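User: Teach me something about this protein's shape.
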Amino acid sequence: MKKQTVMITGTCALLVAGGATWSFANAKEESTVKEVNAQSTTVAGTTASSLTLEQAVKVAEEYVGGNMVKAKQDIEDGVDVYEVDVRTPQETYEFTFNVHTGDLIEIDGDLLLTENQAEPALTQKDAETIAIDESGLTDVKEIELEQENGRLVYKIEFALYEDDADLVIDAETGDVVKMDDELLNGTSEDGATSFLSLDELLPFIESELGEPVTILESEREYENGIPLYELEVMVDHVEYDIDLHAETGKILKQERDD
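Assistant: First, the predicted structure itself:
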């Protein structure tokens, strides 16, 4: 089956799909989009497979009070999505919707720069306080409010030596979602290092798998507040993807890489 691409550009662009052409500016809406809020980012008034590109554009424009400059249907990580760019005087926002569920997946652009429908539980000041406590740093360069994977997050950028380091916090719960490597060497309340070294954790992995292990790649991050190593390892000529708790050595996920 050939992939069909639908694109809108400009406020009076044409919408072409299935052999029919409509003037987007004058098109009738068959379903009314009632609201989108930060807690439930499924487009109200839609059912599975019913979200249209026109609806997605309207939701995006109303969310930040701007005007659409580009919109299209695409495939992202195997999922059918609508990508809608909306411009305000302060910022250009990139919205991503799941075509089939109506979920608002991503908003790329700082929601703190304009009035919008996002209502996070944490204030900007709350997020800054948590970030400073978690990182031990105080030189905050920038804070942005965005949406990732269906949830609102604060992205906090710190000045660190001659470089920058980022920390991402869930704007509803205050959990640390991600933290750059440069910030992962802090200490816990009892003074123990947060992340064990891979040399320290390797015996845990080999004991669990029962074979000698060769680490091919490793990445450290926080996920839902949990410090992780994401590893690619070789065990008896077979590659595995492993998520490892970075403080306890417990294997949280193990997948064979076929």
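Now, about its shape. The longest helix spans residues 53-64. Helices lie at 53-64, 124-135, 198-209. If you'd like, I can walk through any region in more detail.
User: That's plenty for now, thanks!
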